[in-house]
Amino acid sequence: MKKIAEAAMEMLASGVSFAQALVLESSGSTPREAGSAMLVRPDKTISGTIGGGVLEANTVNAAIKALADKRAAVAEFVLEEKGAAAIGAVCGGRAKVLIDYISADEPADMAFFEQLRRASSSNQLSHLAALIPASESLARRNICLVLPDGTLAGAEVFGPDILAQLRSGNSGYDVFTNLEQHAAYLFPVGSDGTVYIFGAGHCGEKLAHVVHTVGFETVVIDDRREFANAARLPEADDIIVPKKLDAPFDTLAFGPDSYIVIVTRGHIYDELVLRRALRTSAGYIGMIASRKKRDTIYRHLLDDGYTPDDIARVYSPIGIDISADTPEEIAVSITAELIKVRAARKRGG
């Protein structure tokens, strides 16, 4: 969302109005998940993506109409070849997309996107909220930010009644669960900790998707470019392809809000990364391993001067025990453990 905010600010500074498309709902085989966003300029060029293909092409056309009308719209697309609402796709699935009109003549829009940019770079979690009225007309812009303390940014586009209702809540989530006349959609913005995934194989790929949805900044590290690339890892905030798998420890700072997950392609690489990880102050270090492999690695470390206290920092076997088997289930298990550790850190435990 940071790149979206920066592109929006650049256009507004140049006096260019544009449309912002935000996927509110997706089901089936849609190209991108809910919360994906892109900006559409009057010349049909875009910043960001909602997945390409016919969904994106149809969204661009709807955005151009919104620009011409200077008003927002909600578009629903059926990714099938037949049917009244079908758009000629064969993958199946449905998507609901909010298209907002962003005016270069409204100073409040520049302030909103500046706040969105700051929130996207923060290590505290905010939420982008889209409010869709049940009966009345859409506002020109239908999104605002719920900041970590529950206050709102960019909500001035809504009417007095909805503003009063929003301001009456005790927290961001309470506010939006109490809305009666609007459907509310919340999407995480910013980072509530950074997960560094060493290994972009099947487990690393699935994990990058899951941890992104619960508010972690996600960095995937693998020395194989055929695995570590944006096509396979569209939700990753950053992808690093080093010459050696442990090279990022020479340039990155890993602190208490860093979560290191080791899911490389073999125990040699696991041990290589673990040795370096234990020399950091990362708040979490987890390594996927059988107990036999784990114990072998631990013996090597103890023989080389690592201490039992060092070993005690490692979560291995990794993840909450839910009898996970598939990469998807393992990703859920690991993410659950990350959430648990993060919650304990927040409580000071």
UniProtKB/TrEMBL annotation:
Any Pfam family matching the protein: XdhC_C
XdhC- CoxI domain: residues covered: 12-76
Name of protein: Xanthine dehydrogenase accessory factor
Membrane-spanning intervals of the chain: none
Location of the XdhC Rossmann domain: 195-338
Classification via SUPFAM superfamilies: NAD(P)-binding Rossmann-fold domains (SSF51735)
Organism for this UniProt entry: Sporobacter termitidis DSM 10068
